[in-house]
Design a protein that fits this description.
The structure is a homodimer. By secondary structure, chain A is of the alpha+beta class. Chain A contains nine helices and eight strands. Chain A has a domain at 6-110: Jelly Rolls, CATH 2.60.120. Chain B binds a DNA duplex through residues 148-149, 168-170, 178-188.
Amino acid sequence: MNSSNLKTFLTSNVDMDEQIIREHIENLKKIQVKKGNFLLRQGDVCKHSFFVEEGLLKYYSIDEKGKQHILQFAPEGWFVVDRESAFFNQPSQYFIEALEDSVVTMIDVDMFASLSLHNQSFALFNNKLLHNHIRHLQNRINLLLSATAEERYLDFIRIYPDLLLRVPQTLVASYLGITPESLSRVRKDLATKKHQKQ
Amino acid sequence: MNSSNLKTFLTSNVDMDEQIIREHIENLKKIQVKKGNFLLRQGDVCKHSFFVEEGLLKYYSIDEKGKQHILQFAPEGWFVVDRESAFFNQPSQYFIEALEDSVVTMIDVDMFASLSLHNQSFALFNNKLLHNHIRHLQNRINLLLSATAEERYLDFIRIYPDLLLRVPQTLVASYLGITPESLSRVRKDLATKKHQKQ
DNA sequence: CGCCGAGTTGAACTGAATCAAGAAACGTGG
DNA sequence: CCACGTTTCTTGATTCAGTTCAACTCGGCG
């Protein structure tokens, strides 16, 4: 089974020779999350960053009509957190839920902040995470504004080829901002197009 | 005329008693940008954060069909920067252009970074900017995924009532991800709806 | 006065949504 | 290991929101 590990992830990204930090990391709670269980619900204040060691999470909203909208998938090696809720201490509009049985390390958001204050290298790492996040969000907005359903799907395959195999098509559709039926048709069209080329 | 000022903006957000920082801020280049002139073009690497003292900027992309997509409007008191390009040192996919004659303070992105390293309070401020940015982007994605053109327009009015009066409708449409004609119809519908209620 | 760009309106069109029904795949318990 | 129920995916028919293209209006300005 695929698995990642926060400690190795951090040591390869942060200069970890300070004893204090090493301790902080090692004392973090690692929890098992069964498929379908929640790490965050709408209305909660998000108090943790979640690092996925094994499994897969989804980060999503539900609108007034009951429709689900995926903001992010988080497979092993990824962080998920509602930064708006965590940073501004507001009730979240979102849910975080396990799509597969998962192992998740919980990092107190305050600890993240105080580590940033006391360790330069960690601050730089945190900064990089934030910039990465912004990069993803901005590119996605640009895509939503400019691309058709088919183009967005092709982009999804390009960026997350691995997720395609693990995530039900319904949820990919929800990520792309289209209905499952539409995605099915997009895929059909692509298949026949591909055929015609040969 | 509306105007903002980086120094007052910073002193009210950052603990500025360190002489070094004060100097840094005061030595920044303040430039005049005529309407239609560019601060960043597609292909450039973004080397500055732009703080708008007076006027209005637009931050946008142009797709293969030549269509323009607005990522952000920046009136006085706002920052604009392509963080993806600046942080990862990549050529930008975007343009930054003056919508009105503007006065802009240019902040070297490297200076921003090194100030963050040497002053805790500035680091916290910078962190807040990043989180604010993420909040905006995430909310916008959620809206693009879940809301109709009309709902997105109403949200725009709610959040940027002032911009509505300064920005040509075509560009608001581009921000919302619809055509100018569609926005015109959305507005017409809203007008008659409002009428009917009375 | 006449031009020009921005906004509006109309008519036809289209990409995607909706609703409904059937087929395939999946997991769970017997 | 099969059988059954459940979820996921596909397909078809119809509807609808938003696009496209074209013509027209309006207000500002040289």
